[in-house]
Amino acid sequence: MNDAVPLLTLCLLWPLLGALAIGCVRDGGRAKRLALAVAGVELLLTMAVVFGFDPSDGGYQWQEQHLWIPSLNAYYAVGVDGISLLFLPMTALLTLMALLAGWNSATRLNRFQLALVLILESTTIGVFVALDMALFFLFWELTLPPIFFLAGLWGGGAERRQAALKYTLYMLFGGVPLLFAIATLALNHAHYTGGDVPGGLGFNLPDLLNTPMDAVTQELVFFLLMLGFAVKAPLVPFHTWLPTMAMEGPAFLTALLVGLKLGLYGILRFALPLAPQAALEHRWLVAIVGAITLVYTALIALQQTNLRRLLAYSSISHVGLVLMSLAAFNYQGQQGALLHLLNFTLIAGSLMLMAGMLQQRLGSCELVHLGGLAKPAPRLACLFFLFALANMGVPGTNGFPAELLVLIGTLQAYPALALVALFGAVLGAAYLLGFVRKAFFGPTGAVSATCPDLTARELVLLLLPALLVLLVGFSPQTILAWPESALRVRQQAVAEAEAVRAASRSAPSRAAAAYQEGSI
Amino acid sequence: MAAYAFLIPLLPLLAALSIGGLHFFNLLRGEAGEKLSARLAAWAIGLAAALALGLLGLELAGNPSGLQVYGSWLASGKLIIGFSLQAGGLNMALAALFGALLLAVARFSRNYLHREPGFQRFFFILSLFAAAMLLLVLSGNAVFTFVGWEIAGVCSYLLIAYAYERPVAAHNATRVFITNRVGDGGFLLGIGLMLAWLESADWQTLNTGAADLDRGDATLLALSFAVAAFAKSAQIPFSPWLARAMEGPTPSSAIFYGGAMVHAGVFLTLQLRPLFERAPAAMALLAAIGAMTAIYGYWVGLSQTDIKSSQIFAASVQLGLMFLECGLGWWTLAAWHLAAHAVVRCYLFLTTPSILHNTHGRPIEPVPAALADCRWAFIASLQRGWLEPAVDWLLVKPILQLAKDARYIEERILDPLMGSPAPAIRAMSSLAQQEEQKMGANLSSTEDRFAQGSGLAGKLAQWTSALLNWFEYHFILRGIGRESIRVGRRLGQAANRFEHLLLRARYLALFVLITLMVALGYR
């Protein structure tokens, strides 16, 4: 019904066109307003995708498919389902906020910066809507150049170039296993359908989900995909790029990096469903990695004296929590993980933007330069506290329903790890409130006394997510209604995989025989 | 009529939102705005209290109103968490009582806080607290009781840190909130278990289903809620937070720690009476902890010299006694004790400034002779039983040490291992570099060392070559000489240090914990 208008392609192309147009504008001020307008229209476009979406249908909607590389049988295939749908407006919103936050930050090459932000928006949306693995990989890698240049050219720290390089190398390292996994999937498809290579290759996600795979290949694909996404998520021990980027990169870029959890989206969308039996087999491992990530980074966050590093570690800690929840493989766990990811765009993004505002005002986010900020900047303190509460999952904010669902999901699957999650919640309160105490309370220092309160522009840009935080906390069903059918479909697939696994355990030879028959 | 029960928490919430919103946007400031904020808060709380009293009156007149269901808040598969209020019984009686106390405090604060810089902030928090507290006692399911529970905790944090410029106040507020967070963990665990076993978060379902629960399950569930109750009502080992909370303005102490919030734990226990009766072990724990806290509070209270501290230790004694009564199965007595104590303690707290005023200049009474004669008992009383240092030593310090160790691993081992690339790439010239070159500074053009790598692979290659080089230099060229013995000794020392570290108490505890969890996982 809604497949007549290529709205998703429009969502992808519009920011790119905007970036081109900005290149043609000479005046810096006009370029900024143009970028803002482009991002605003993009937000409206993504909202149109959401409101044209039928939540009762658990499949893909707004689908488009055109042959892209005939020799590889790769398609330009895009579409959204309930799981990926809400990431689009969140991306658009966060980009809009980032543009507003970085309004006066760049003095040189301003237009280039604006164009890069818009290109990043387009490629990020591409990652969320791609239904073809080859196309997905293309968008995945295309997010790198804008981030590399944004961090390297406009970063705040002295070692921004190293940070940008470190990030890019990490991501390239993560891209290799992804590429291998995608190739394996495509070859398996060719093998299974009996087609020749390359004509029988398949990259289409819905097809790949229905292609059977033998146990060994599944293991291979699962571990390769998990490795690739673990670097991006990031999970311990591949996480050290994020604190570096948080310290060296510009605040608006870091907000986009911590706010949009592409790695976890990849795990949710590809790693777990594409190799269902292997994922079920190793769910303990995944959950334990999540638990280690959660506690280890929360402990490190306790030791941080710099707000940006603290937020980076806090964000990684939440990644661990979401991973645990995903590994529970039950409905509540999936729902909680998805809600947490969407929340995170608002909470972590806003907190990081506020860290940027502090940096801009005081030249530092180090605790020695802060202290007693609540006096000179009460509104900043107030909003920071609100987002901090949301980050801790205090009721009344959107963090609470997500934490509750995550906890219920984890408790049903792994009672022991649920205790770890609760311990993490205590640590979460400790590191954030400890920071609030030292930065916002206490006697006002000489540096912080000069801190001006939020400007009207900053107030508008922060009040929007603040209202959403409270609204979703008040009525989480407004968000949770959208992915419901899609999650049910996903849960159905998990149940089937579970049944297959149980059958193959009781009669391993039969499963192997079934595969042999299929493959011959 | 009973269907309007939702207005009882909603009215104070609306007052809080309007005071907070107007204050945030600078529309309600300074002395000129005092009247409006005080009136908004007092009217909202007053109307809520009147409504609660009315509903209570209806019930006493023989017109009981039961559970009011208002629809669902969150749906997740089979689990549906609704919003419902318990418009009768103990819940409504306590709502009426707390409403009346809140009204008294709101009226009192209007004069007490006159011309204070945080006047509007105080009334915003007081209204929010009223909404949270009324929701806590009225809610028909565990999730919304927890919502009230936690928001009341946040309000308590904000009021302890009322004078936020003072480091002690800010420090105490943080400490109190984090201590309470441990109890919140217990509450959340209880909710999770309830949803997992009974597929419902309604108190009614739990209380009717308690009899069918396995005894072990019932005990676990009761213990989770007991931890929450102990933390909120400041029982041992959580007791010290209550004395720290005295930093807030006196009216807030009166309502938070004298009147309403500190009784929330006892209320929770009363609410879960059928569950606790199913779990005798949990009942015994209630009695034991209650008795210990009562003795502790009495003992420490003997040597307190400032009025708020002696009040709060007296409150501790009473709260301990309430838990003791619950543990012994005297539920009705505990409920009456709660109501009576709330009124008396709230009144006593509100009169403390006047008492100080009237007794100014009089000497402090000495401690009782029995305590003064026994030196050790006296010292222990003065040191408040060393309870807080003990908790610090047992829990806080090891966790902070672990955090330090984790940071060490992160910065010294993991980060270098995963590669911090050297600034070797010349292809990209940043603006700063361009400027540097323009100025002729050219800071970053240090001579490249031999085999300078960049990134993970580069570093790996560099290190491998360096290692091979070192190996060749030390072993092949020099032969096995003194050097290798020294290297060996150093390796041994490092191994010893590692082993020593592993034997530290915190790591032993960590291993024990992990083993326990694995055991729990494979249950």
UniProtKB/TrEMBL annotation, chain A:
Compartments reported by the entry: Endomembrane system; Membrane
Main location: membrane
Matching InterPro entries: NADH_Q_OxRdtase_chainM/4, NADH_UbQ_OxRdtase, ND/Mrp_TM
Residue ranges of the TM segments: 6-25, 34-53, 73-100, 112-131, 137-155, 167-187, 220-239, 251-272, 284-303, 310-331, 337-356, 377-394, 414-433, 459-482
The NADH:quinone oxidoreductase/Mrp antiporter transmembrane domain, residue ranges: 130-427
Entry superkingdom: Bacteria
Membrane topology annotation: Multi-pass membrane protein
NCBIfam families, A to Z: NDH_I_M (TIGR01972)
Family: Belongs to the complex I subunit 4 family.
Identification of the protein by name: NADH-quinone oxidoreductase subunit M
UniProt source species: Methylomonas aurea
UniProtKB/TrEMBL annotation, chain B:
Superkingdom of the organism of origin: Bacteria
Record domain NADH:quinone oxidoreductase/Mrp antiporter transmembrane: where: 140-360
UniProt keyword Transmembrane helix, yes or no: yes
Chain ranges passing through the membrane: 6-28, 40-60, 80-106, 118-138, 144-164, 176-198, 254-273, 279-300, 312-332, 505-522
Record's keyword terms, sorted: Membrane, Transmembrane, Transmembrane helix
Subcellular localization, as worded in the UniProt entry: Endomembrane system; Membrane
Membrane topology: Multi-pass membrane protein
InterPro entries: ND/Mrp_TM, NU5C-like
Entries under PANTHER family matching the protein: NADH-UBIQUINONE OXIDOREDUCTASE CHAIN 5 (PTHR42829:SF2)
Protein name stated in the entry: NADH:quinone oxidoreductase/Mrp antiporter transmembrane domain-containing protein
Source organism: Methylomonas aurea
